[in-house]
């Protein structure tokens, strides 16, 4: 029996989470797991119902759970609120409160979706499999910020040594289980914080002599991702660059609607969410792609609950449904069958073996 805190969130959040819980329940039946879901509020809905984007109760329940599943947060309705009252503050707040410093964003191009990738076939080669390891609770997202009467405004990018060390270790550990290459991405030709980052990453690299370390400036990395994505295995980077590069990496896999993520703290505790946002323009229309959330559930089973077999089964079911030609509209191409959010979730649940 696992206790899962569920934050459905805003926009398409509730639809994609419902579709994913349907898959998780089915996996539970097949693999002998029981799930107890506790729905908690964060983001826009939490603002509407409680006045705060992150009620204390939400933090407490998440901390007491085995794992956390999150849909998406935000929307135009809350756009004019001050920074610390916005739905996004709820998202950043929960990452920080739960100590989730490592954000794993795997960008994998499924064979079946080659058509949906904007990259040419000769660039894609025999497929893409990149893991973006983004630092999630530091950097410019959390540094000193403010405004003054000048008038001027600032945000500060700061990293402490332990912050860089622990995320670098995670990246090298992951690389050891993959293709043994880490590309650290920074802006060391300009930023002091990046030069500091490089020094520490080089130190940590010594603990992993089998892993090759490459270092790229972020502007170059952005370019390399579209001209030669094959060179990447694990991309290790800070909070802001990781935010940007993971969106870019997701698009080369066909759609941002395909990318899951795991936000991990120490040990197995984590929060699992698609990397995309709340897509308010298509909310409630049964159009959203639930696959990123369904794959996030698979990551939850693998990383948080140690249910490897069930995780594999969900990923296999996703591939099977794609192979059968079913697509949500964002990944549709000629000759495929376009279906809605619910049906996609149901088909994946039914395809579980
Ligand atoms: C993401 C999102 C968030 C981020 C926003 C919604 C605060 O873009 O998870 O990538 O910038 O981290
Ligand atoms: Mg982002």
Provide structural commentary:
The protein is globular and about 50 Å long. It has two domains: 205 residues, Isopropylmalate Dehydrogenase (3-Layer(aba) Sandwich), CATH 3.40.718; 135 residues, Isopropylmalate Dehydrogenase. By secondary structure, the protein is of the alpha/beta class. The relative contact order is 0.17. Helix 8 runs parallel beside helix 9. It is 41% helix and 20% strand. It starts with a strand and ends with a helix. The strands form three sheets. It has a ten-stranded mixed sheet, with helices on both faces. The protein has a two-stranded antiparallel sheet with strand order 6-7. Magnesium ion binds next to helix 9.
Task: Give me the secondary-structure topology.
Blueprint: E1 2-9, H1 13-31, E2 35-39, H2 44-50, H3 56-64, E3 67-72, H4 87-97, E4 102-108, H5 121-124, E5 129-135, E6 145-148, E7 152-155, H6 161-176, E8 181-186, H7 192-205, E9 212-217, H8 218-227, E10 234-237, H9 239-252, E11 260-264, E12 270-274, H10 291-304, H11 308-323, E13 326-327, E14 337-338, H12 341-351
Parallel strand pairs: 1-2, 1-3, 3-12, 5-10, 8-9, 8-10, 13-14
Antiparallel strand pairs: 4-5, 4-11, 6-7, 11-12
Helix pairs in contact: 1-10, 1-11, 1-12, 6-7, 8-9, 10-11, 11-12
Bound molecules: 3-isopropylmalic acid (IPM) and magnesium ion.
């Amino acid at each position: 029996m696992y206790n899962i805190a569920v934050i459905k969130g805003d926009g398409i959040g509730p639809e994609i989470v419902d579709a994913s819980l349907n898959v998780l329940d089915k996996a539970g039946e097949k693999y002998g797991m029981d799930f107890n879901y506790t729905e908690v509020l964060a983001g826009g809905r939490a603002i509407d119902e409680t006045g705060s984007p992150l009620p204390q109760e939400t933090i407490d329940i998440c901390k007491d759970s085995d794992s956390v599943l999150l849909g998406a947060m935000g929307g135009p309705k809350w756009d004019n609120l001050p920074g610390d009252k916005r739905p996004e503050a709820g998202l950043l707040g929960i990452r920080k409160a739960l100590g989730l410093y490592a954000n794993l964003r795997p960008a994998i191009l499924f064979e079946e979706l080659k058509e949906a990738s904007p990259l040419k076939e000769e660039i894609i080669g025999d497929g893409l499999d990149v893991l973006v390891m983004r630092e999630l609770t530091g950097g410019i997202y959390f540094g000193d910020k403010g405004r003054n009467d000048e008038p001027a405004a600032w945000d500060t990018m700061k990293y402490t040594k332990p912050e860089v060390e622990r995320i670098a270790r995670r990246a090298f550990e992951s690389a050891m289980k993959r293709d043994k290459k880490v590309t650290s991405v920074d802006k060391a030709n300009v930023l002091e914080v990046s030069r500091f980052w490089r020094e520490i990453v080089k130190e940590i690299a010594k603990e992993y002599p089998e892993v090759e370390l490459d270092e790229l400036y972020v502007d170059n990395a952005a370019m390399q991702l579209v001209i030669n994505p094959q060179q990447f295995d694990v991309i290790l980077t800070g909070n802001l660059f990781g935010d940007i590069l993971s969106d870019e990496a997701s698009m080369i896999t066909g759609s941002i609607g395909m990318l899951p993520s795991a936000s991990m703290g120490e040990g197995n505790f984590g929060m699992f969410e698609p990397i995309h946002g709340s897509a308010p323009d298509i909310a409630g229309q049964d159009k959203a792609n639930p696959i990123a959330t369904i794959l996030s559930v698979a990551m939850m089973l693998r990383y948080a609950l140690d249910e490897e077999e069930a995780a594999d089964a969900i990923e296999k079911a996703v591939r099977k449904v794609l192979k059968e030609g079913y697509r949500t509209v964002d990944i549709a191409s000629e000759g495929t069958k376009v279906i809605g959010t619910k049906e996609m979730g149901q088909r994946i649940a039914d395809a579980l073996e």
